[in-house]
Specification:
Elements (H helix, E strand, L loop, with lengths): L4 E3 L2 E8 L4 E7 L5 E4 H8 L3 H10 L7 E9 L5 E10 L2 H10 L6 H8 L1
Antiparallel strand pairs: 1-2, 2-3, 3-4, 4-6, 5-6
């Protein structure tokens, strides 16, 4: 884990995904649940986040998808900005999502990493 910062009731850390050597934000809520933004996972696999969001909402994972607040950055006035992001619970729904999208991944290296 790495950098941490509090966003309302969520703590954000950096998670290095196993088998991928890729860093994604990991949100923690007070109930000890962990979430990964769908956008970060789509960037990892080079998939369209818009298309995947529509797909994930239609399948079984739609019940586990949640909208959370993420930091977007800090302005010149030192006020932090937040953006809403669709997130999947980690590790259960993220693992299921990887299994569901494996056929759509075109990058050979990422496809091999998904099979591990």
């Amino acid at each position: 884990m790495g950098d941490t910062g509090t966003i309302r009731t969520h703590t954000v850390t950096i998670l290095i995904l196993p088998h991928f050597e890729y860093a994604v934000p990991l949100l923690h809520d007070p109930d000890a649940h962990h979430y990964v933004p769908l956008y970060a996972l789509c960037c990892l696999l080079r998939l369209s986040a818009t298309d995947e969001l529509h797909r994930v909402r239609r399948v079984v994972l739609g019940w586990s998808l949640c909208l959370l607040s993420l930091p977007r950055g800090v302005s010149r006035a030192s006020a932090s900005h937040h953006v809403a992001a669709w997130c999947l619970p980690y590790p259960t729904a993220v693992g299921s999502w990887f299994w569901q999208v494996s056929q759509r991944v075109r990058d050979r290296e990422r496809k091999a990493q998904l099979r591990r």
